[in-house]
Design goal:
CATH superfamily of the largest domain in chain A: Type I PLP-dependent aspartate aminotransferase-like (Major domain)
Helix content of chain A: 25-40%
CATH class of the largest domain in chain A: Alpha Beta
Largest sheet of chain A: 7 strands, mixed
Largest interface: A-B, 84 and 84 residues
Order of helices and strands of chain A: HEHHEHEHEEHEEEHHHEEHEEEH
Oligomer: homodimer
Strand content of chain A: 5-15%
Distance between the termini of chain A: 47 Å
Number of helices of chain A: 11
Structural class of chain A: alpha/beta
CATH topology of the largest domain in chain A: Aspartate Aminotransferase, domain 2
Strand order of the largest sheet of chain A: 2-8-7-6-5-3-4
Chain lengths: 356, 356
């Protein structure tokens, strides 16, 4: 605490990202893609590393927006680009949510949402997930200044259908509804298909997960032009050039590399299903995931104890010391080999438990 | 305007960056470095373009902070890294300046400062530069919630001495004083040397200008740890990973490449002095610059008219339609060849004026 911090800074409770370990570990804790970006992406980035770096990037990322628009089946005027979807989400909270009415989001969801609210002086009301960790769209029929739904939700991995999202959109014509689709490519339907019909819909996506470019920091928002213009106003009151030249080049190439992306998505989905079946077979509760991670619970061992054991065995998963989910672990789907090691380690451990 | 924008967004007047022209022009409008980064910088970035991009970058940019600390003669705990100095400046306004008292900065300075204030709900009081466009430190002896001084100032290019900065720091022990040193390497003294003695001092620097990496987006703040911690609180309430892997690698390499940097700085300074002498020789008023740009005025032609003529001749400079400086042009110092063309074009034009 410092006397130089203003009141808001003193009251902030910053988000704590998952650990980036210095030692070599099987890293299943921050939902990164286990497969690297394709060679065409790396080649495009190497080409972008040239004498032109002395010049500012295109502040409007025109070519990248046009490429994403073609990829997503929308127009460039429907696309906003930022320095990772965390920045894009923060801009959306900043541009659209009023101070007077609470933002709604599930009580169990991406834990950055309440942090954005605190930073921006917004109030929020967590809306309880049902006992099975699903979202009931009917719960979003109350006064609010905005709604944020991660679909699939994190850290549960459970997806809403498009018709359930439409129920929320229709019930809230005067609120901006942000659908955070960080994990959508792993098994949910994108709400981008709905933007023409719902001026209150903003869809946020990222290249960090499905495109294996977490190290690059590129995120998108998709919506009608008036929402995109609102995001641009906030961006241009903060940082004119958020996405650097090399990142723009890599993102453009990756959006054109659907072969690599689709193959890796298929592998990750198949691995997820295999691991889920295997874990259930040895007594685990595994939430039904549409994402690249699974939430798991074991009847005979606390999540923290299993987390600590795995860490000792150099397998890093994510433990949340939070209400309702403190007896679950979130496990990113890694490569087949990594998940084989994970399953063997888990099975050995629970066998040792059963003997005690 | 949209009914979905909140009140703050409706009232924003976003910053307008200098044009990034699509056609080939002599580009003297956004104070970029005319010489490219060194080969070792490009090589380090190409090396960073590899399969590891699937993983998040180090959120704390530890190696980059350590490298910058060694470069600047401070400790890593004194260093904050962000996505360009615009982001770093915004975080500083956000973390330290209270809503209750006005932020002070010169009436003629970087025009992003009032935009940050509007975005963050802060009030500000512009402090008039003297008639010769210099800053009088005694003018910063009044009630305030924070002070921002660009040194050298932009777009004037005029620098304060360290003792003048100390006068401001001593007069304001309870306010954070931000010294924005975007252009310091081109001819001013850095206030980094003062951070041990002034807990209220935050120095902001960038790799965009002196290090020729505008396309990469890396900026720094230097100060005592309590100020750095305040910036980290804001960063972690906004975006955990602001600086991507390739940018971190390029910035580290450039900070070690003092040979290239110093040679280019020397050339730019020599070019600036030569151009200034030549312009004065043909009747221009040229403010004394410690930066990589000059502010110029001609007695017999409006700045806008000269701007339009230069643009027609494919030379892009910066015209500000703002009080006090609307009869000046800001001209970035380009290569020797670019400045020769600029001088010839200007001279031809004013000769044609005199004949009319």
């Amino acid at each position: 605490m410092s006397r130089f911090w203003n009141e808001r800074t003193r009251n902030l409770k910053p988000y704590v990202p998952g650990e980036q370990p210095k030692e070599t570990m099987i890293k299943l804790n921050t939902n990164e893609n286990p497969y690297p970006p394709g060679e065409s992406v790396l080649a495009a980035m190497r080409d972008a590393v040239n004498g032109g770096l002395r010049l500012y990037p295109d502040p409007e990322a025109t070519e990248l927006r046009e490429t994403f628009a073609a990829y997503a089946g929308v127009k460039a005027e429907n696309v906003f680009v930022g320095n990772g979807s965390d920045e894009v989400l923060s801009f959306a909270f900043d541009a659209f949510f009023p101070a007077e009415r609470p933002v709604l989001f599930p009580d169990v969801t991406y834990s950055f949402y309440p942090v954005y609210c605190a930073h921006l002086g917004l109030t929020y009301e967590p809306v309880a997930l049902k006992d099975d960790f699903t979202i009931d769209p009917a719960d979003y029929r109350r006064e609010n200044g905005g709604i944020v739904i991660a679909n699939p939700n994190a850290p549960t991995g459970i997806a809403l259908s498009l018709s359930e999202i439409e129920t929320i959109l229709k019930a809230n014509p005067d609120s901006v509804v942000v659908i955070d689709e960080a994990y959508v490519c792993f098994g949910a339907e994108s709400a981008v298909a709905l933007i023409d019909r719902y001026p209150n819909l903003l869809v946020v996506q990222t290249m960090s997960k499905s495109h294996a470019l977490a190290g690059l920091r590129v995120g998108f928002a998709v919506g009608q032009p008036e929402l995109i213009d609102g995001l641009n106003r906030v961006k241009n009151a903060f940082n004119s050039y958020p996405v650097d030249r090399v990142a723009q080049a890599g993102a453009i190439a990756s959006l054109k590399d659907s072969g690599t992306i689709d193959a890796n998505l298929n592998t990750i989905r198949a691995t997820r299903e295999g691991v889920s079946v295997a874990l259930r077979g040895i007594g685990f509760d595994v939430l039904p995931s549409s994402s690249n991670f699974i939430m798991i619970h074991y009847w005979n061992c606390s999540a923290k104890r299993l987390f600590d054991h795995l860490r000792k065995e150099k397998i890093l998963v994510r433990y949340f010391n939070l209400p309702r989910i403190d007896d679950y672990l979130r496990v990113t789907i890694g490569t087949k080999d990594e998940m084989r090691t994970f399953l063997d380690t888990v099975e050995d451990f629970i066998n040792s438990l059963d003997k005690n």
